[in-house]
Amino acid sequence: MVALIGRRLILALITLILISLIVFLGVEALPGDTATAYLGQMATDESLESLREEFGLNDPLHERYLNWFGGILRGDLGESMVKRKPVVELIGNRFRNTVVLATAAALVGIPLAIVLGVIAGLMRDKWPDVFVSTTSIVGMTLPGFVTATILIYVFAIRLEWFPAITLVPSDVPVIELLPNIVLPIITLTLIMVAHILRLVRTNMIDVMVSDYVQMARLKGVPYWDIVFKHALPNAMLPTINVVALTLAWLLGGVAIIETVFNYPGIGKLMIAGITDRDFALVQGIAIILAAIYIALNLVADVLSMILNPKLRTARGH
Predict the structure, then answer these.
(1) Per-residue pLDDT tens over the stretch 104-137
(2) Cα–Cα distances in angstroms (integers) from residue 208 to residues 167, 230, 298, in the given order
(3) Which residues have CB under 8 Å from 20's CB, separation 6+?
(4) Sign of the CA dihedral 201, 206, 211, 214?
(5) Burial level of 224, CB count in 10 A (0-12/13-18/19+)?
(6) SS3 of the chain
(7) Which residue of 40, 47, 60, 123 is 20 to 30 Å from 190, comparing CA positions?
């Protein structure tokens, strides 16, 4: 078990290094000159050269990458060319805000998806299953910004229950953020539930017709004991990785939702960095999100191996 986890850690580190290289080269490959984009077309040659020297843009590509990656290992993500502040400082409050939004959405969406998925799986082809499945298909089909726009129109414009957009600064206390995240949470929950629910439903259907469940029924084991003690734990095992991917998406893939609601999170900050060609900021956010994605997948793999001995045996070979 320890050896398997060790191999997973090594693989995670190698993956992070490769992603850092891809992120760096991807940002470098963007068309245009960074200094010119920042200072404008009317900038003098002297000012452009001074800016390039200040931020090391004249250094060879490999030296810039090594300096940047070395800074990452020290916890230094560089300095924003546009904001003239350390990237870590700029990301701080924005990342906290995204974590608040993601945590709230996960606490609502994941249990709801599991409950609805179990109900749909146990009542296959009956009206609760048809209703839940149809609703989930609609939720998976509609783009996030469309769902967000509909919610804004209904609950902010027509009913006036919640604010349409967030107008508070990024550094406000968390308690002041809460009234502004109701509609974003509902949007993210609808999207998240649709994906997890379908998987839980499928797993429950497969488990309920499996041999060991049929044997338990023949032995007279009470129905709900079969569901909660035998079927549900086994149905949840394949869902662990999907939940981990969903959490990673909540932290890094909600830029559009944050933009629609003007929410001061890390996704909106990254879009602003791309627009301003603030490459240090974009690279810093990208590598943080990549590290989170890798870490959550690693945790999901370890949990799967702990909960399912068969995986330990299979992966050990």
Answers:
(1) 888 988 899 888 888 888 888 888 888 888 888 8
(2) 49, 9, 29
(3) 69, 72, 287, 290
(4) positive
(5) exposed
(6) CHHHHHHHHHHHHHHHHHHHHHHHHHHHCCCCCHHHHHHCCCCCHHHHHHHHHHCCCCCCHHHHHHHHHHHHHCCCCCECCCCCCEHHHHHHHHHHHHHHHHHHHHHHHHHHHHHHHHHHHHCCCCHHHHHHHHHHHHHHHCCHHHHHHHHHHHHHHHCCCCCCCCCCCCCCCHHHHHHHCHHHHHHHHHHHHHHHHHHHHHHHHHHHCCHHHHHHHHCCCCHHHHHHHHHHHHHHCCHHHHHHHHHHHHHHCCHHHHHHCCCCCHHHHHHHHHHCCCHHHHHHHHHHHHHHHHHHHHHHHHHHHHHCHHHHHHHHC
(7) 123
Q: pLDDT tens for residues 71-105?
A: 888 888 878 877 778 888 888 888 888 888 888 88
Give the count of alpha carbons within 13 A of 78, CB side only. 25
**Mean pLDDT score of the chain:** 80
Q: Is 54 exposed, middle or buried, given 0-12, 13-18 or 19+ CB atoms closer than 10 A?
A: exposed
Length of the chain: 317
Q: Which of 305, 284, 294 is nearest to 68 (CA)?
A: 284
pTM above 0.90, yes or no: no
| Rounded-to-integer distance, Cα 243 and Cα 236, Å | 10
Nearby residues of 111 by Cβ (< 8 Å), 6 or more positions away: none
Q: From the CB of residue 96, how many other CB atoms can be counted at a distance below 10 Å?
A: 17
Q: Is the pLDDT of residue 41 over 80?
A: no
Question: Average of pLDDT values for 187-194?
Answer: 85
CATH number for the segment(s) 89-290? 1.10.3720.10
Q: What angle do CA 30, 288, 52 make, to 5 degrees?
A: 40
